[in-house]
Amino acid sequence: MYGHDRLLAELPTSAIEAGFLGLLVIATRGLAENVEHEVRGLLVEARRPAELAHAMCRLIEDAQLRQRLVGNARRCVTERFGCERFE
Fold first, then answer.
1. CB 39 within 8 A of CB 55
2. What pLDDT shows up at residue 1?
3. FRET partner for 10 with CA separation of 20 to 30 A, picked from 26, 28, 32, 67?
């Protein structure tokens, strides 16, 4: 599981790398362009620890959600940034 807590980031490569490596991503809503909520990860409001805890519990408890998010994130990263795209 990977958490990203920046309020603003132009291109958070660490969140992109985490998705490619098959890590679950929880990020703040400032990363909505790169971490589509409920599709490639979960987004929470900044400075809301209860939301973060809830997102973590969801991922721990829901195996289907984990598998879906990891698969979608990896597929997206490969399509957007994979070597084949630049050949």
1. no
2. 82
3. 67
Q: Are 8 and 32 in contact (CB under 8 A)?
A: no
Instruction: State the CATH number of the domain containing residue 75.
Output: 3.40.50.2000
Span 29-87, pLDDT tens digits = 877 777 899 999 999 998 899 999 999 999 999 999 999 999 999 999 999 888 776 66
Rounded Cα distance between 32 and 35, Å, is: 5
CA distance 78 to 82: 4
Which tokens belong to 77?
Answer: 């990263």
Does some domain include residue 87? no
How would you label 5-16 residue by residue, b for 16+ Cβ within 10 Å and e otherwise?
eeeebeebeebb
